[in-house]
Amino acid sequence: MALGSSIEWTNSTWNPVTGCTKMSSGCQHCYAERMAHRLQGTGLPQYRNGFQVTLHPETLELPLHWKKPQTIFVNSMSDLFHDDIPDDFIFGVFDVMRRASWHTFQILTKRSRRLARLDSCLEWAPNIWMGVSVEAASYKFRIANLASTRARVKFLSLEPLLGDLGQLHLQGIDWTIAGGESGPGARPLDPDWVRSIRDQCTDASVPFFFKQWGGVHKKVNGRILDGRTWDELPCPLTTQTIVVHHHASTAPTSGTELTTQAGFTS
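Request: output the structure for the sequence above.
Response:
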């Protein structure tokens, strides 16, 4: 729960749930798990259970007290559609997001099948953005699950990108984020995997945001791709501007620079 976030594509985080369980290859070096155990060691009550799924109903209405409009990443330390989270609790989170209409809320899930099952029961306010994580080609079914929902803004988080995703079905997708894995044990990112995603987004007029090359020292590797940063956002951004964090880059570049498409915010 923080006003201010180091995540490049959001302003703040809100965690009415903490904890998760691994379910696919992108979870292997989970940053949230490392952080949860570190916070548990400091005695922070919210992380008394470490990385076990834990509901925090006392924090549900926190965004209603943040009067300045924010772009808020929901459950940066969990997955709102985890099987251990009751339907009614998810509905409660959606109710708060609807009531806090001056904020923009970003939700990410790997549990896209549950998302699709609950879609008809969810109240999709315009300020709720729904995304799925796709780290490898074998999980591209999550894109179809997302596309089937009634979410007003749909986005993809293609990170930690672990392989070539091949052809992406971007119809109905409003935004794409890509990035490499960071931290201990980070697996390598091939620049051509990123270029393929960027080029497909450009062809489909889908805003593209390149978050990072990653690695053990992600700030050193930066986020420059082919001579520039890629900070495109869905347009119009409904409530406020996201402040993008920039770092230097030693990543390979070809010197090619693509023109930002009309209607993008960069």
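The beta strands are 12-14, 17-18, 54-55, 71-74, 104-109, 128-133, 153-158, 175-179, 208-212.
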